[in-house]
Amino acid sequence: MENMQVVLAAIFGSGVTSAVVTFALNSWHVGSKSKRSAAYLAQKIAFILERYAILAADSLGDHDAAIITDGHHGTTASKLTLFSELPESQDYDKLDAKILDRVLDFPDQIQLANSAIDQLFDFEGGEEAVAYAAKATNEIALSAIAIATELRLKNGLPKRNLDFEGYQVHKWLKDRLAKASA
Questions:
Q1: Measured between alpha carbons, how far is residue 24 from residues 28, 37, 68, 127 in Å?
Q2: 20 pLDDT more than 60
Q3: Whole-number Å distance between alpha carbons of 139 and 117
Q4: CB 42 within 8 A of CB 89
Q5: Which of 181, 179, 163 is nearest to 50 (CA)?
Q6: Rounded to a whole number, what is the distance in angstroms from the first to the last CA of the chain?
Q7: How many CB atoms lie within 10 A of CB 22?
Q8: Which helix (H) or strand (E) segment is 175 a member of?
């Protein structure tokens, strides 16, 4: 009888231990997979935002060329570049709420700026609208880089250097905005 109790205790004890270890491993695996999925989503969004900033900088370079050459080269800013769709994912709830708020608000900021530009064209004239379009494009592009940088930092992703053969997108946008504001 005593041997039977020892055998039952060993079986019961090992079963409980096995169940606890299995539960812990499954929880760790699910958490790890969820964290990787959230980091992948953050990286995709960061690339979309950085690409937006690059396109905006290109548009501003075109705008500046048009201003310098009195319209003989390039085109002046008249609207902000539209933002591409955010990726489909079940992992948005795993991103930092403050950063996610900025990501989800980003397309609305572009729309609001474009509405303001339309109003300026309708009521103030082309020069004011074009100047505002260029300034808003610059500010939104810098905002895109800031959000992308924050996403990368918060999710343990590598920092992306937006430097192309000496052309530093972030620095160029900051310097351009400082000159325009002076």
A1: 6, 20, 65, 64
A2: no
A3: 14
A4: no
A5: 163
A6: 93
A7: 10
A8: helix 169-181
Number of other residues whose CB lies within 10 A of the CB of residue 7: 10
Q: Between 102 and 31, name the one with better pLDDT.
A: 102
pTM: 0.78
Judge whether residue 21 has pLDDT over 50: no
Q: What distances in angstroms separate CA 104 from CA 85, 86, 95, 125, 143, one per listed residue?
A: 11, 9, 12, 31, 13
Round to whole Å and give the CA distance between 177 and 137: 10
Please write the tens of the pLDDT for every residue from 120-135: 999 998 899 999 999 9
pLDDT band at 31 (very low <50, low <70, confident <90, very high): very low
Helices 97-123, 126-154: crossing angle, 10 deg rounding: 170
- Tell me what the mean pLDDT of segment 39-58 comes to: 95
Look up residue 180 and give its two tokens: 């325009």
- Written as six digits, the tokens of 7 are 């055998």
3-state secondary structure of 164: strand
- Taking the C-alpha atoms of residue 162 and residue 153, their distance in angstroms, rounded to an integer, is 15
